[in-house]
Amino acid sequence: MDKRTKGFTLIELLVVIAIIAVLMAILMPTLGRAREQGRRAACLANLKQLTLAWLMYADESNGKIVNGTGGIDSSQAAQGPYWVGKCWHDSYQTGVSLDEDLQREGIRAGALYTYVRDTGPYRCPTGTKGELLTYAAMDSVNGLYRTGTTTTIGGKMVGTRVGKTVVWLRRLDEIVSPGPAYRMVFIDEGWVTPDSYAVYYQQETWWDDAPVRHGDGMNGSFADGHVEYWKWRGTGTIKYGKLQQKAHASNSRAPESEADFEDLHRLQVATWGRLGY
Fold first, then answer.
1. Helix/strand/coil for 219
2. How far apart are CA 117 and CA 248, in angstroms?
3. C-beta of residue 199 within 8 angstroms of C-beta of residue 266
4. Nearest CA to 116 among 52, 65, 61?
5. Is the dihedral of CA 55, 82, 44, 172 positive or negative?
6. pLDDT for 220-269, tens place per residue?
7. 42/39 Cα distance (integer angstroms)
8. Cβ distance 109 to 135 under 8 Å?
C-alpha cells in the first residue's frame, strides 16, 4: 500500500494566511504605538540631559543662564555665550540642511557641549533627517526677548518683574514665582531653527505655531530638571502645528476654539510665568 504524506490544501493555506493578516492588522498599530513611545522616551531623555547641562552651566557661572538665542546674530552676544552654535542653513525654511560636519562644529562650539560631550542628545530620534539639532531654548530663558518682557535699569537690560514673577530670565535665582518646576527651558521642535522658540507675552496669538510631535503632542523640559509630554487639546493647534513643521509663517495666528486658547495659554504661562494681557 502506497504511503502518501498529506499536505495542506489550498483552502487551508488561504485560511492560515487570512488569520495571519488579521493578526498583523491587530498587532501593527500596537507595535507602532510602542515604537513611538520608545522614541518619545528617548527624546525626553535627551531633553533632560540638556537641561541638567543647562543647570550645571548656571551653577558654574554664578547663577547666570546661558544665552538661549542660538547665535542668530551678534546683537545677542551681550547675553553671554550661546548654548549652541550655528547648525542651520541660511535657506533652512526651504528645506535645505547644513552639512552635517558643520552642524557638529556648531554643536561643539556651544557652551553646553562642555557638559554634554556628544552630539546625539541634541537631536530627537524622530527629528528631520540630516539635522543634528532639533531642540530650541524658550524665548524667556535668556533668549530673544519680546514686547513687554524686559526693562532697562541703570543702562542694563533686565527682565520685567510683575509681583514676584520675572518674565524674561537672566539668572536662576530670578525663578521664584512660579517656581522652577513651572518654567520651561527647552522644547522639541523636530527640526533646526536659528533662534529661541518664539512666544508672545502681551498678545493672545501664536508666534511660532505649536510643534506637533510624538502623537499630537510635544516634549519639553523645565528649570528644575524634569521633563514632560503634553498632549495638545485643540484641533486648530494640531492642524496648524503640522503645517508649520519646516517654517514659522504664522507670527500672529489667533486660536480658533476654547481648546486652542487653552493650549496657547498653557505654553505662554510655562514660558513667561504668567500671561501679559
1. strand
2. 30
3. no
4. 52
5. positive
6. 999 999 999 999 999 999 999 998 766 655 578 999 999 999 999 999 99
7. 5
8. no
Q: Confirm if 165 and 172 have CB atoms less than 8 A apart.
A: no
Does residue 52 carry a pLDDT above 80?
A: yes
Residue 153, exposed/middle/buried by CB under 10 A (0-12, 13-18, 19+)? exposed
**CA 266 to chain CA centroid, nearest Å:** 15
- Report d(CA 76, CA 68) in Å as an integer: 9
Phi, psi at 71, each rounded to 5°: 70, 40
The pair phi, psi for residue 159, each rounded to 5°, is -75, 140
Contact between 80 and 71 (Cβ < 8 Å): no
Q: Cell 541660511 maps to which residue? A: 90
Measured CA to CA, the distance from residue 198 to residue 214 in angstroms comes to 21
The residue written with cell numbers 529661541 in the block is 196
**Cell, residue 18:** 487570512
The three cell numbers locating residue 164: 514676584
User: Measured on CA atoms in the order 212, 218, 219, 223, is the torsion positive or negative?
Assistant: positive
6: Cβ contacts below 8 Å, ≥ 6 apart: none
Q: How far apart are CA 121 and CA 26, in angstroms?
A: 34
Residues with Cβ within 8 Å of residue 15, at least 6 apart in sequence: none
The residue written with cell numbers 531642540 in the block is 135
**Predicted TM-score of the model (pTM):** 0.87
